[in-house]
Amino acid sequence: MRKNKNLIYIAGPTGIGKTNLSIEIAKKLNSEILSCDSRQFYKELNIGTSPPSYSQLNDVKHHFIHNKSIHDIYNVGNYEKEAITLINKLFEDKDVLILVGGSGLYADSIMYGIDEFPEIPTNIRESFINEYNSSGLELIQNKLKKLDIKYYNEVDLNNSNRIIRALEIIEFTGKEFSLFRTKKQKERVFQSQVIVMECEREKLYNRINTRVDNMIEKGLEKEVLELRDFKHLNTLNTVGYKEFFNYFEGKSNYLDTLDKIKQNTRNYAKRQVTWLKRYKKSIKVHCNQEVDKIINEL
Given pLDDT bands bounded at 50, 70 and 90, which one contains residue 4? Predict the structure, then answer.
């Protein structure tokens, strides 16, 4: 482990203010920021993923923001390899780096590493995605329950991406997905510290609702409309996009669509809060806590 090389992961549910806090801390510590938000990677998703603004990107150097296309094949394994290579290079000049984003699995891949999985042919993945798009979540949930009950009892059953990932590995290898999950921590050349942002539930939900309203004002509907030919892509199975796809197909009216986006975002925030409980040694900070106090705690 390199002496005095520290990665600070700023975690918290969506809408709580992670981006602003990460920028303030990065400024104070003369650092750079790496995103671990698995949807902010994609350059076509400018509004619905709430990436940092142009002024924020100019304030502090960011990495892994709009660096991929929705048409690219990209997963957490690819991200881990790219991010660790970059982090090791940045630590040649920096003592502290900031990791920020709500995708806990991607953050864990940086701090602890993830298990190695075989490369899966594209056609296998696409077949499960097509099944999901045509028949819904329950079908792939039941398939996973039949093929790997252990992982079925552990996975977030609302996360279609993870279910499909498990099914494609089972299909390709003939083995249960759970057999590949050794949970063996990899060695890193830096220390990690997790900051978990918290706030009152009502306040968080109000922030989420306001943020969705702001997305609508910025043109989220138009952005999704321009992407509707690619709605089959797994990268667009994302809150804010999938609800508008249903609206364009006449499956819901406009006001119900907006309500559904807010509801699904709140539900996503709940799942994130549950995930964050695993960071037993994290520093808990209120969303309004002053940056200097947080740095003192670090």
Answer: confident
Write down the CATH number for the domain with range 202-271: 1.10.287.890
Coil/strand/helix, residue 268:
helix
* CATH fold of the domain at 122-180: Histone, subunit A (1.10.20)
**What are the pLDDT digits (tens) for 176-190?**
988 887 767 788 989
pTM of the model: 0.84
The residues near 84 (Cβ < 8 Å, ≥ 6 apart) are: 110, 188
Nearest-angstrom CA–CA distance, 115 and 206:
37
- The string of pLDDT tens digits covering residues 245-276 is 999 999 999 999 999 999 999 999 999 999 99
- Nearest-Å Rg of the Cα atoms of the chain is 19
**Domains 6-116+186-200+279-297 and 202-271 agree in fold:** no
The fold of the 6-116+186-200+279-297 domain, in CATH, is: Rossmann fold (3.40.50)
- Which two three-digit tokens encode residue 81? 């390899």
**DSSP for 56-89?**
HHHHS-EESSS-B-TTS---HHHHHHHHHHHHHH
Give the CA angle between residues 150, 177, 104 to the nearest 5°. 85
